[in-house]
Amino acid sequence: MDKDVWVLVEGTQFGATPGEDKVEILTPGSYYKKKDHHCLLYDEVMEGTDEITKNIVRFDDDMLSISKKGFTNVEMVFEKNKRNMTNYVTPYGSLLLGIDTDRIDIRHDEDSINIDIDYALDINYEHMLNCKIKMEIRNSFPMNGSLHQETRRKRT
Fold first, then answer.
1. Structure pTM?
2. Mean of the pLDDT values across residues 126-135?
3. What CATH number has the domain spanning 4-155?
4. What are the sequence ranges of the domains in the chain?
5. What is the average pLDDT score of the chain?
6. What CA dihedral angle connects 55, 137, 5 and 110, to 10 degrees?
7. Which of 85, 114, 139, 154 has its CA 20 to 30 A from that of 131?
8. What is the DSSP string of the chain?
9. CA 42 to CA 35: how far, in whole Å?
10. How far apart, in whole angstroms, are the C-alpha atoms of residue 152 and residue 8?
11. Dihedral-angle region of residue 55 (phi above 0 means left; psi in -120 to 50 means alpha; beta otherwise)
12. How many CA atoms does the CB half-sphere of 40 hold within 13 Å?
């Protein structure tokens, strides 16, 4: 994998309302590998604001963590069949999140990494949503000369 990469993150939530709520982010990032551990860095502009949140994703074959710092602050850890607790800090207050990971699948080759995570999310010990994260990390390639973030939200 190259150091300069494109990062596609698709987050899907089920259960809050009928149907599903899906957010997709396509943004440039930086990737490196140290021994058996992978690290990905990318910035995310939160929808409805100009605030930037810096993301650090660390993973190996069995575990993935996402650290967000900026507009929101959280360290989310995903390990198969494990429950992890964390504080989700926003400008409006903090929430205690429970992350119960059902499935984590990390596949990689020399040009790309694909990650799929299924998990249940609770807030203050009350189940709220079932969620999926799909992440695709690809070697950097020209994309219409554009190097900015693109965010799409869909409700089905």
1. 0.86
2. 95
3. 2.40.128.20
4. 4-155
5. 88
6. 140
7. 139
8. --SEEEEEEEEEEESSSSSEEEEEEEEEEEEEEETTEEEEEEEEEPTTS--EEEEEEEE-SSEEEEEEESSSBEEEEEETT-EEEEEEEETTEEEEEEEEEEEEEEEE-SSEEEEEEEEEEEETTEEEEEEEEEEEEEE---STT--S-EEEEEE-
9. 21
10. 11
11. beta
12. 29
Q: Within 10 Å of residue 7's Cβ, how many Cβ atoms?
A: 24
Q: How many CB atoms lie under 10 A from the CB of residue 85?
A: 11
Residue 155 has φ and ψ, to the nearest 5°, of -125, 125
The tokens of 86 are what?
A: 């964390």
pLDDT digits (tens, 9 = 90+) for 48-91: 788 899 999 999 988 999 999 998 999 999 999 999 999 999 88
